[in-house]
Design a protein that fits this description.
Layout lengths: L6 E5 L5 H10 L3 E5 L10 E4 L4 H10 L3 H9 L4 E4 L1 H6 E5 L11 E6 L10 E5 L9 E5 L4 E5 L4 E5 L9 E6 L2 E4 L10 H18 L5 H11 L2
Parallel strand pairs: 1-2, 1-3, 3-4, 4-12, 5-6
Antiparallel strand pairs: 6-9, 7-8, 10-11, 11-12
């Protein structure tokens, strides 16, 4: 797939799969649902949607996806997780189930269900560093927040008002992006656009890798030039 239209999968085990597919397509990605290991091979990026983090892990185990997902993420596949997806990209969890597993990758500690129960869901404008055009409407549904950020991770967004003011709700570490909130539910695809640009940047760097001297010699031998 070209950098202009990268191929991005949405993990389709549970959660807001259709909404993420729609948002990704609106910002120029070739978006597909992913349920099998074979579908991971040709991806340029991956989205892990909201849902229930322990259920997603159990389903990933059932479909023999847990270790393949961990490997592709650790090998550098650009990945974005929203809400439960943030939990699954965390290296550490508090408030989770006993022995809860994650895919990992971001050096952070996430508190599961930090904002409370379903009936305590809310919306709030949040500034996301790197996302132009003013605040995004952040939808928080049984959302986590980041309690501790490791040295390799960069904070992109915080809650700005109320009792949770200052809490980290957007974070990036290299090729990995995570938000506590659900941008796919608002019709505003700017966060998805930010992620697609991350993917394009990785693809662009891959395309720019220069040939080695031995490769140049091989081309000369084949072509005579």
């Amino acid at each position: 797939m070209t950098a202009a239209r990268p191929r991005i999968g949405v993990l389709a085990l549970q959660g807001d799969v259709r909404e993420h597919l729609t948002a990704l397509r609106s910002v120029g990605a070739d978006a597909i649902p992913v349920r099998r290991e074979s579908e991971l091979a040709d991806l340029d990026g991956l989205v892990i949607p909201g849902g229930e983090s322990t259920t997603i892990v159990k389903l990933a185990q059932h479909f023999d996806l847990l270790e393949p997902l961990r490997k592709r993420i650790s090998d550098g596949l650009p990945t974005y997780g929203s809400c439960a997806g943030m939990i699954l990209l965390a290296d550490r969890i508090v408030g989770g189930a006993v022995d809860q597993e994650t895919f990992g990758g971001i050096d952070m500690t996430v508190r599961r269900n930090a904002f409370g129960r379903q009936i305590e869901s809310f919306e709030e404008p949040v500034n996301v560093e790197g996302v132009a055009g003013g605040p995004v409407t952040a939808v928080f549904i049984r959302a986590p927040w980041v309690e501790d950020v490791g040295g390799g991770a960069e904070v992109l967004a915080r809650v700005t008002s109320g009792p949770a003011a200052g809490r980290v709700v957007g974070i990036r570490q290299g090729h990995l992006l995570a938000t506590s909130f659900h941008p796919e539910l608002t019709g505003d695809a700017r966060v998805h656009g930010y992620f697609v640009d991350m993917v394009r940047n990785v693809l662009g760097k891959s395309a720019e890798v220069p040939t080695t001297k031995s490769e140049d010699s091989a081309v000369t031998a084949r072509t005579g030039r």
